[in-house]
Amino acid sequence: MTDATATPRAGGSVIGALWGATHPGPTLVVTVLSLALGIAAGVEPGRLALLVVAVFAGQVSVGLSNDAIDGARDAAVGRADKPIAGGAVSPERALGVAVGAVAVALALSAPLGLGFLAAHAVALASAWAYNAGLKSTPFSIVPFLLSFGLFPSFATLALAHPALAPPWASLAGAALGAAVHLTNVVRDLDDDRRTGVRGLPHRLGARVSVLVAAVGIVVGAIAVLVGPGGGVSVWGAVFFAAVSVVALATAVVALVRPPGRLVFQLTMLAALLLAMQLVFA
Questions:
Q1: How far apart are CA 108 and CA 54, in angstroms?
Q2: Fewer CB atoms < 10 Å away: N or C end of the chain?
Q3: What's the pLDDT tens digit per position in 23-79?
Q4: Are the CB atoms for 124 and 62 separated by under 8 Å?
Q5: Which domains does the chain have, with CATH numbers?
């Protein structure tokens, strides 16, 4: 473990290392999804900007806290690709920036109303609780169900006349979160076991985790297809078909070969299609 004044590796920078420790891909995907849902819900530009930047700051805090807390564990299994484990930035510095990012996220959430502030605070507390220890329990999926289940309500709570998202949208969000959790750790199961992490996917096993994730995504897609009422639109049918085909392909691959990076990529594709289906709905 490095100290708070550790210098970054040659050719790098502290800012670049911190950004690399935020889990940039998921951070940007969630931020863009908040933008898309906000536009679809009709959030006015000024409030939409606050929504997107607040979500971005919150995701930065979640990613940084994850890698800061796991720094020693990642180093123990040789994860030199991770900036903190590789010594490019200290866990203390990353955790300090993560706390600052939480403060920014909540400060930007407050002008959007008490409902939005409360929902965002609960989602962030849930994510931090996962990072702090829930990941090693049978309840590791709960933060994902809660945070992603609340996520569609971010857009509707940011409206001038706020309201919670309809139940079918929350169900789709929860299904999306479950799929992300159940498949995200598939590639790291062995490393996690070596360092004492035994969350729900570790207890279910890789193959069962992927199959449950695929079924969950289809359930979410069905909820989005029929939940709004008023008949099925062409785009709704197209996205539902696409989600179902990719989810089926994921299940078949998981059954015929040991689950690895391909099933993760397929599940993330199905999850992205589900997210787009939700936006169009």
A1: 5
A2: N
A3: 998 899 899 999 999 999 999 999 999 999 999 999 999 999 999 998 887 787 777
A4: yes
A5: 1-159 (1.10.357.140), 166-281 (1.20.120)
